[in-house]
Design goal:
Elements lengths: L9 H4 L5 E3 L9 E5 L1 H7 L9 H6 L12 E3 L2 E4 L2 E5 L5 E7 L6 E6 L14 E2 H16 L6 E13 L3 E11 L5 H10 L3 H15 L9 H26 L1 E2 L21 E2 L23 H20 L1 H9 L7 H19 L1 H18 L8 H15 L3 H8 L11 H4 L5 H18 L3 H9 L9 H12 L4 H10 L10 H4 L16
Antiparallel strand pairs: 1-3, 2-9, 4-5, 6-7, 7-10, 8-10, 9-10, 11-12
Helix pairs in contact: 4-17, 4-18, 5-6, 5-8, 6-9, 7-8, 7-10, 7-11, 8-10, 12-15, 17-18
The protein binds adenosine monophosphate and magnesium ion (MG).
Adenosine monophosphate binds next to loops.
Length: 516
């Protein structure tokens, strides 16, 4: 099969300023853990593509297939709000860009050994975090949320030291691009190589924002790309909010230029609703708490804007092309910089409105409101306040709301039971019932629509944890079962109620940290 694949490798064509070409370090005596049939289909590969020694070798860091060109890319970034300088693919190898029915897609190994950007790390990823990334990538996609995809996991007995000794795994990720905000920050602040910055932006626009490529000036194209990234990021944040997802490490090096969810580490889906929920045990300040994510994304977009300023400033852009001799005089430069700043800020301007629009339409869908009305916001906010006050389970409460009956005298016990203050819930329910009745849509029709907006199944930490514990014992069936379950998050799937239930008592002790 792999002899017939067509590779393009446009990122590699950018040249060695952007990466180091080097082979991955193979896992010793590797074995398969899981393969995603859906990601396989996305690539247009046969379902049994993985059943060959050549496939196991290639996707555990061993012999690459013909056409693959392993490399580690360099980027920088802000971590927890502080400039961290150079980072890069410290344990990831970009394998290449393959032609697929869905267009060209990049394939990347994670956990595949040391690179020049590994810093203090060992270049490895553990089985635990690889299973979490694999399951969540595919689950997010099934929820309709933009994300990098996961093709497969391979693993080995190789010991890896984290808080305890764990074992190594390699997860293969797939995306149109793995470009991060941090790639641009790198060439502006660390390498201070404006020609490379310009080449990266030109390539990104040509490949990923082709509609903008026709704008005559680079400054316009880059500003338009920034605006498009801002809009996509805003919509992504609204989607995260609407499913109760916390990323955990929203550093600028973990922000996708394409507005994809990327770099699954200490992420979590909220159980009890708490706007201040912190999923990452390492994030003691709560910088990346659930409700802060939309604001943090905007902060990160400002960092991206800052990195792109030299290109939005037409003078500096021209200087980047012409080399040092083309630099304009100081006064003209300053004026150009001010114009660039205004332009960059203007590009970020739509973020708030885009987020607000996506958020209100997302929440309306969650509440089953067919029309948009001025009072919707209060109705949603009041429900969320009640949920937070009573620590109602985010996923269960919304899912049960679908069965809400507008019939006079209906008790709506299933959802009411999620609240401690039942009287307060009843008061809200009366307003909600009145609102729904005024729309004239029948309950069954509304319930069906709500069940397409409110998942029954999300990757709660305890579900992943059970699959991880089994996998450590060599049993991967729970990984596969969860993968299949989360492929259909909106379906009832009778018989799997336990997977949709409140977390068991033991799960309250689970802590997820940056260690992966
Ligand atoms: P993260 O917080 O996982 O996004 O990682 C931040 C930076 O550290 C990135 O440049 C990663 O490539 C790098 N990194 C994380 N874990 C490791 C590891 N075990 N070995 C080498 N580099 C790592
Ligand atoms: Mg990262």
């Amino acid at each position: 099969m792999h002899d017939t694949l067509r590779w393009r490798n446009r990122f590699a064509e950018l040249g060695p300023r952007f990466y180091t070409e080097l082979p991955a370090q193979p896992l010793p005596d590797p074995h398969w853990v899981a393969v995603s049939p859906q990601c396989t289909a996305l690539l247009g590969w046969p379902a049994d593509w993985w059943r060959s020694p050549a496939a196991l070798a290639a996707f555990s860091g061993g012999a690459p297939w013909p056409g693959m060109r392993p490399l580690a890319s360099v980027y920088s970034g802000h971590q927890f709000g502080v400039w961290a300088g150079q980072l890069g693919d410290g344990r990831a190898h970009w394998l290449g860009e393959v032609e697929t029915p869905a267009g060209p897609l990049e394939i990347q190994l994670k956990g595949s050994g040391l690179t020049p950007y590994s810093r203090m790390g060992d270049g490895r990823a553990v089985l635990r975090s690889s299973i979490r990334e694999f399951l969540c990538s595919e689950a997010m996609h099934a929820l309709g949320i933009p994300t990098t995809r996961a093709l497969c996991i391979t693993a080995a007995a190789l010991p890896v030291q984290r808080e305890t000794v764990e074992t190594a795994a390699v997860v293969t990720r797939v995306a149109p691009s793995f470009l991060r905000f941090g790639h641009f920050e790198h060439f502006t602040h660390t390498a201070q190589d404006l020609a490379a910055l310009a080449a990266l932006a030109d390539a990104a626009i040509a490949q990923h924002f082709p509609a903008l490529a026709t704008l005559p000036e680079r400054a316009e194209r880059v500003a338009a790309m920034l605006e498009e990234v801002a809009r996509r990021t805003a919509r992504l944040m609204a989607q995260w909010q609407c499913v109760g997802f916390c990323h955990g490490v929203m550093n600028t090096d973990n922000m996708s230029l394409l507005g994809l969810t990327i770099d699954y580490g200490p992420f979590g889906f909220m159980d009890a609703f708490d706007p201040g929920h912190i999923c990452n045990h390492t994030d003691q300040q709560g910088r990346y708490a659930y409700a802060r994510q939309p604001q943090v994304a905007l902060w990160n977009l400002h960092a991206l804007a800052h990195a792109l300023l030299p290109l939005i400033d037409g003078e500096a852009g021209a200087a980047a092309d012409a080399g040092p001799a083309g630099a304009a005089d100081a006064q003209a430069q300053e004026q150009a910089q001010q114009r660039a700043q205004q332009r960059a800020l203007a590009a970020l301007e739509p973020y708030k409105a885009e987020f607000a629009t996506a958020m209100s339409s997302g929440l309306r869908a969650k509440l089953g409101l067919a029309d948009a009305r001025a009072e919707d916001r209060d109705l949603c906010d009041d429900l969320l306040r009640r949920m937070a006050a009573d620590r109602a389970d985010f996923t269960i409460t919304f899912r049960r709301l679908a069965a809400f009956s507008t019939a006079p005298g209906a008790g709506n016990e299933a959802v009411r039971d999620q609240f401690i203050d039942r009287e307060a819930f009843d008061a809200w329910a009366a307003r909600y019932a009145e609102r729904l009745r005024s729309e004239g849509r029948n309950d069954a029709e509304r319930a069906a629509a709500m069940n397409r907006a409110n998942p029954k199944f999300v990757l709660r930490n305890h579900l992943a944890e059970t699959a991880i514990r089994r996998a450590r014992e060599g049993d991967f069936t729970e990984v596969q079962r969860l993968h299949a379950l989360l492929e259909r998050p909106f379906d009832e799937q009778p018989g799997n109620e336990a997977d949709a239930a409140l977390p068991p008592d033991w799960a309250t002790q689970l802590e997820v940290s940056c260690s992966s």
